Amino acid sequence: MTVNKPSLSQVRVVSNRRSAWLAGCAATVVLTAAGCGGGGAAGTTTKDGFAQVPQKDGALTVWVDATRLDSAKLYQKLHPDVKLDIVTYDGNANGSNYLQTKVQLFNRTRKGWPDVVFSSQSNEVTWAVDAGFAAPLNKGLIPPATLGRFAESANDVCTVSGTVYCLRNDLSQAVLWYNAPLLKRFGYQVPTTWEEYEQLGKKVAEEHPGYLVGDAGDSFAPEIYLWASKCGANHIIGPKSVSVNTTSEACTKMARLMDVLIKNKSLSISGVFSTDFGKNKADKVLLMPGPAWFGGAVFKDTLKTPAKHIAAAPIPQWQGDTSPSTGNVGGGTWLLSQHSAHIKAATDFLKWVTTDNAYQGEKAPGFPAYAPAAETWLKEQDASGYFAGDLSALKDAASQVWPGWGSGQFSQEAIWAATVKPALTQGKTVESMLPAWQNSVVKYAKANGYKVSQ
């Protein structure tokens, strides 16, 4: 994963006009390419497209989430001469904005920036460029040959006006995971359309109550179901412009499908990582639409599903739709700080962690964005003996992520978690909450400076 060609739309987001932003900088700050609040110190040298602070020896500070901790540890093991200071944080999970908040603090105090940081979000460039944090990578740091081997469009979410400011870690295209022996025992076929999926959910509720065909209880549920249905709830159409329409037919027909299956309890409203789900439903999953990383992170590690049970198929499509589409959940990014005093070491780490088979091809939990590593990763999954079939569906789905759902500065997961998820636990329907969802998206978008069309 020209192997995998994800059509990730996440438009090259640029922030408010730079002139207005610069005008807000204190007059006493020396402005450099490092941005307002950063860099600017005496002795900086413009190189690789930005002003670099004096370089020195010392430990390389790398921020990772718990899942990526193994990558940093492996790099340290394979590069014993490199000093690493590994810091774990939440990875900006569910749009926590922790990284942005800390960078704002570091910009004020003019110290504390990490050299390299992982984020589970794909929208960091919407603020990290104008904050003077993210360093340009295609101005001399990362060779064009390396950048050219990432999956097509994978680094679109990292690109502002032709400049690449981060590297995609993994692709998180959604597929239909299913329990192969259980499906066979029940005498069911893998559904290929959403209409078949709904009918199967009805049969499961009637013939095998308690078993599940999916989960609508996570904050990323809209990125699986509504995104795959081409619901235009989050279409980034310009640097600071978004189109929001949650009540189109593409949205309402998927909402109705979800409501039918939630009502008959074949679609769970407990999240896959909740204690309730793991305790009561781990062995009840017949089908589960979900991203590439579900295979390892959910089924193998969290639910402890036995080997040779889980397989992947293409996500269903609506009957008559000749343009296959799917959603995307996550797909983290790596950023290098403009303030790093260890640019060479930081660049080496960044390139290794995103491209090297030692991690991406052989150890990474998700589908690598770097195409050669993705090929190795697929072979490793097949060789592991865990899955009930090959994962070619992941490779195909990588080119089918619908481009009408963007990656703005606001978090759709946070919005859904605050607006729709509580309503579902109160017995309200997804369809009834679509207008409220729209209002919340509009509110959050405007609060982040977006011009909104509805």
UniProtKB/TrEMBL annotation:
Keywords: Cell membrane, Lipoprotein, Membrane, Palmitate, Signal. Pfam families: SBP_bac_1. This is ABC transporter substrate-binding protein. It comes from Streptomyces lonegramiae. The lineage of its organism: Bacteria, Bacillati, Actinomycetota, Actinomycetes, Kitasatosporales.
